[in-house]
Design brief:
- The chain is an alpha+beta fold.
- It has one domain (116-515): Cytochrome p450 (Orthogonal Bundle).
- 56% of the residues lie in helices and 9% in strands.
- A 5-stranded mixed sheet has the order 1-2-8-5-3. A 3-stranded antiparallel sheet has the order 4-12-9. The chain has a two-stranded antiparallel ribbon with strand order 6-7.
- Helix 17 (324-339) packs parallel to helix 25.
- The longest helix has 32 residues, at 16-47.
- This is Cytochrome P450.
- Its cofactor is heme.
- The chain crosses the membrane at residues 20-43.
Length: 532
Amino acid sequence: MALGTLASILSSGPSSDTLWSWTALPVGLVLLCLLYEIGWIIYCRVWHPLANVPGPFAASISRLWIAASVASGRAEHVQRMLHQQYGPLVRIAPDEVSVADPQAIKTIYSIKSGFTKTDFYPPFAPNISLHGDHFTQLDETIHAERRKYVNSIYSMSTILESEQYIDGCIDVFLDKMAQVARQGKEIDLGEWIQWYTFDVIGELFFGHQFGFLRDEHDYGRYIESLDTLLPGIALSCVLPAYIRPLHSSLGMLFSTIRDSVKGFDEIRAAGRYWTNLRQQQMQSGSVERVDLLDKFFKVKEDKAGWDVQDIQNEACVAIFAGSDTTAIAIRSILYHLMKDRACMDKLVAEIDDFDSRDLLGKPHIRYAEAIKMPYLVACCKEGMRLHPSVGLGMPRHVPPGGATIAGRYFPAGSRVSINAAVVHYDQSVFGQDAHRFNPDRWIDGNAAAMDRHMLHFGGGSRTCIGKNISLAEMHKLIPEFLRRFHVELTDPAKEWKTQNFWFNKQTGIRARVRARQRGQIALGLSGGVPSP
C-alpha cells in the first residue's frame, strides 16, 4: 500500500503548490539579503557616525574598497590623490577614516593619547609565544610591561657595542662593489642593499653574517618568503576579522595565498631554528661572543614571564622586519641622490671635507662621526620622508569620550589612521616643494617642527623597536660607500617600481659603480666571513 502511494505521487509529478514551496525559500532569502544590503547602505550613508565624512561611495559601504586598494600595491598613491580631492579627512571604509592633518599625529599616536590598536595588526603575529610580540600586541598594559624587558637591548648604546660587526658587513659590501667596479657590470643595487641589511641582522642577533653578500644569493629564501607572504597578510589586515578565516581557507585554492602561508611558516621556522641552535651552543659552551640573542637569554634568567618562545618571537620578528624596512630606507636615500646629481655632489663634497680634516675614521666611519655630518643626516631624513618604509595607514580606535581630529568630533570606537606616505607630503609642514627630494629643507627650515611630524618609525609607545639598528646601518653604510665609489643609475630617466604591501618595497634600481680617486681607501678589509 505504502509503495503504491509513493509511486502515485512520483508519477503525478510536483504540484504547483510544491513548486512554489521549493522556490519561495531561495527567493525569500535573496530578497532578505537585498533588503539587508539596502538597509546597510542607507545606514552607512545617512545615520552612521561617519556618514558626513567625504570619500569614495564604495568605501563608505564596504571594506572591499580598501581591500582592493591594498591588493593593488599602490594604496599610498590612491590615498594621496583622495586627500587632495577631499581634504584632511577621507572615509576609506564604513568604520574608518584616513587622516592627513599633521597636527593629528600627536593626538592619535602620542604615548598618553588613549588611542589603541585595532584588529588590523593580528595577521602579522608570528603566534609563537602566548605573550604575543611587541608589534601585534593590542593590550597597551601588556605591551608596555613586556617592552620594558627589552628596551635597553634595542638602545643605541647597546647596538653600538656591536658596531664592529656592522663594519664587517660593510667591508664585505665594499669588497663586492670593488669587484663590480673592476668588471664594469650593471647591478641591481636594491638587491645588494637588502643583502647587506640581512647580513647585519645575522651579525647583531645571531653572531654571524648569514652569507647573503658573500654568496650573492637569498640565504634560506628569506627574501622570497617575505615577498610572498606580505601581500596575503596586508589583504587580511584590512578585511573584517570575521571574514579572515574564510579568506585563509578559500585562499588556499590560489597559489599566491599558499605561497604566502608557506613563506610565513618558513620565517617562523627560521626564528625557532636560530634560537634552538643558540640553546645548544650555550649548553655545549661554544658561544663565541655576546649578541642580541645572548642578551634575550639573559632576560629569561632575570624575568619569570620571559621564556624561550618569547626569544623565538624576537628572532622571527628580526628576520621578518629587520631587513626590509632598513633596505627600503637606504634604497630611497641612494635612489633620490642618484636622481639628483647636485644633491649627490653636495653630499660627496661634505664627506670628502670631513675626511680631509680627519673627522672620519679609517678604515671605518663611526656612527658618532657620521651623524655630525649635517647634510648626510638631512639626506637620510629626506629619503625616509619621501618614501617611508611602511606605506599603509596605522589604524587606532578613538578612546572613550571621543576625540576631535582636524576640527571634527569622532565618537569612541571610531577607527582613524594616518599614513606616513601621505602626511609626509604636507606642504604646511614640509614646504611647497614637499613632493621633491630637497635635503636642504632640514638645514634651512624648521627641522624640529618637521621631525615632530615624521611617522617613518611610527610614534609614541609604539615607535619601531628596531629604529636604532636601522639608523646605525644607514648612517654608516652610505658615507662609507660614497667616499670610495661613484654610483649612478644606468638610466636616470627610468623610474623605480614600488609595491606597497605594508612594506613599500622598491625594485628596478639598476646602477653602475666605479672606484673614486679622491678619498679612496684600500679595499680588501673584510677577510673571511664566518660560515652560517
